[in-house]
Amino acid sequence: MWYWVRGRGLAKPDPWSAWYSYDAARYLLLPVDFLSSPNLEKLRQEQALIMPSPQSAFSLSLPDGDRTWKIEAVGFDPTLHEADLGVVYQSTGVTDPAALRTEATASLERVPQNPARNPREFSRLWAYAEKDGKRTPVMELPMANIP
């Protein structure tokens, strides 16, 4: 309930934080994916009213010198049971693990610099490479390790 109430309070002054608070509330209220309830439906309806929402901002292009990173999506990621942010970026298709890590690190470094939203309130960022409609988890970085 705390995240739900927090989301309501942040809906006008900080819609991005409100959006992720609603996602956290849904994650904590939903023990399994196939469950539905009036409360979950009400939460979903309230979240849908938030504008501008993170969903409407993507895909987002972030310039970085001679390269532009295309961020496809950003979402609440509860993989480690903490407030983390999952970032889906458009990959160049590299398969070498070292090159993939370099690509993921470079794309994650651009996200906190995005003037639309500074996600410093999260514990870590997760990178998911997307190429030809396929998403591959690449790495996670604590926010403290991102310049």
Count the beta strands.
5
Silhouette: elongated
Main sheet: strand order: 1-2-3-4-5
CATH class of the largest domain: Alpha Beta
What percentage of amino acids are in beta strands?
A: 25-35%
User: In terms of structural class, how would the helical and strand content be classed?
Assistant: alpha+beta
Question: What is the domain tally?
Answer: 2
Regions with little confidence, pLDDT below 50 for 5+ residues: none
Largest sheet: 5 strands, mixed
- Helical content stands at 25-40%
The overall pLDDT, averaged over residues, is 81
Q: Total number of helical segments?
A: 4
Order of helices and strands: HHHEEEHEE
Cα separation of the termini: 33 Å
CATH topology of the largest domain: Alpha-Beta Plaits
Radius of gyration in whole Å, from Cα? 16 Å
Protein traits:
alpha+beta; 2 domains; five-stranded mixed beta sheet; 147 residues; 4 helices; Alpha-Beta Plaits
What's a concise summary of this model?
This protein has 147 residues and is α+β, with helices and mostly antiparallel strands. It has helices at residues 2-10, 15-29, 38-48, 97-110; strands at 60-64, 67-77, 84-90, 124-131, 134-142. It folds into 2 domains: 2-52, no CATH class; 58-145, Alpha-Beta Plaits (2-Layer Sandwich).
Write the layout of secondary structure elements.
Elements (H helix, E strand, L loop, with lengths): L1 H9 L4 H15 L8 H11 L11 E5 L2 E11 L6 E7 L6 H14 L13 E8 L2 E9 L5
Parallel strand pairs: 3-4
Antiparallel strand pairs: 1-2, 2-3, 4-5
Helix pairs in contact: 1-2, 2-3
Describe this structure as you would to a colleague.
- By secondary structure, the protein is of the alpha+beta class.
- It folds into 2 domains: 2-52, no CATH class; 58-145, Alpha-Beta Plaits (2-Layer Sandwich), CATH 3.30.70.
- Helices cover 33% and strands 27% of the residues.
- It is built from 4 helices and 5 strands.
- The protein has a 5-stranded mixed β-sheet with strand order 1-2-3-4-5.
- Helix 1 packs antiparallel against helix 2 and helix 2 (15-29) runs antiparallel to helix 3 (38-48).
- The longest helix is centred in the N-terminal third of the chain and has 15 residues, at 15-29.
- The mean pLDDT is 81.
